[in-house]
Specification:
The chain is of the alpha/beta class. The protein has nine helices and five strands; from the N terminus they run ααβααβαβααβαβα. The structure holds thiamine diphosphate (TPP). Belongs to the transketolase family.
Length: 283
């Protein structure tokens, strides 16, 4: 579905795809050693996270308190080992710290919190990241700041009613500095979103709340780069990108297998996953 015409996006995409393979491997290692984590959700979001952090967001570990930095909110906070892997590759936390994930007194908990450098909002109770991001976008406007607010939500997460209050408010105020990315893997915990509490027609619903909406492929890095670099989708409206993704993407035996929401890796599975990613040097 690539339809990008920006040559620099294509060049950057090759590097981002390499980083995403590495980040997937780090996430697998972190979850395997802790016998914890939500690998299906991690792999689903990884290409989006890497595209944002290595190609779009103005954030810098060396200048982490810059008031005009962009703000990213991981509302599907259970994708924490993905986020920690990306933050380590981005220089916010040392890579060795990933080994502490899930241990007593570690700041790397199962859902992300602001104890971790680079995490802007503590999340984990689904349905709160978008309301927080909407407030941050209003604050950015009041500050006349050029900072952009990007929030990543799970699709099952959109069943939480609090999201719809925020969607309504952002539409009312035309918050064009706000972008919602929906990780539309069609799965929630152990079931299809459409079987449990259907979201479709999601795009029409969002448009009726005043949002500009576009469908993207959440694993197509060049295309995501060009779309994300040309936001907002429409002047005077918040933007929503509905990203078609595959839960477990990149590890063949996890892809679209609902049991991988929070299943544990055996050593044999772990070795096989690393081999598939061609990242056997991670261990
Ligand atoms: C308010 C709330 N209810 C339940 C949970 C437990 N929980 C964690 S992840 C998850 C499923 C999320 O599905 P989705 O948003 O589609 O994300 P995905 O893992 O598919 O990317 C649930 C129910 C939670 N964290 N918060």
């Amino acid at each position: 579905m690539t339809h990008n015409s920006d040559p620099s996006a294509t060049a950057d995409a090759v590097e981002i795809e390499r980083i995403a393979r590495r980040a997937r491997a780090l996430s697998l290692r972190t979850a395997f050693h802790a016998q914890d984590g939500h690998l299906g959700a991690d792999m689903s979001a990884m290409d989006i996270l890497c595209t944002l952090y290595f190609g779009v967001l103005r954030v810098d570990a060396q200048d982490a308190a810059d008031p005009d930095r962009d703000r990213f909110v991981l509302s599907k906070a259970h994708a924490s080992t993905a986020m920690y892997s990306v933050l380590s590759l981005k220089g916010f936390i040392p890579e060795e710290e990933l080994e502490t994930f899930g241990r007593a007194n570690s700041r790397l908990s199962t859902v992300v919190s602001t104890r971790v450098p680079g995490v802007e909002f503590s999340t984990g109770s689904l349905g709160h990241g978008l309301p927080l991001a909407t407030g941050a976008a209003l604050a950015g406007r009041m500050d006349s700041s050029a900072r952009r607010i990007v929030v990543l939500c799970g699709d099952g997460e959109l069943q939480e009613g609090s999201n719809w209050e925020a969607l309504m408010l952002a539409g009312t105020h035309g918050l064009s500095n706000l972008t919602l990315i929906v990780d539309r893997n069609l799965a929630q915990k152990g079931a299809s979103t459409e079987d449990i509490n259907a979201l479709e027609p999601l795009d029409d619903k969002l448009r009726s709340f005043g949002w500009a909406v576009r469908h993207i492929d959440g694993h197509d890095v060049p295309d995501m780069l060009s779309v994300l670099r040309s936001l907002p989708l429409a002047e005077g409206r918040p933007s929503c990108l509905i990203a078609a993704t595959v839960k477990g993407k990149g590890v063949s035996f996890m892809e679209s297998d609902l049991s991988w929401h929070s299943r544990r890796l055996t050593r044999e599975m772990y070795e096989r996953a690393l081999a598939e990613l061609d990242e056997g040097n991670v261990r």
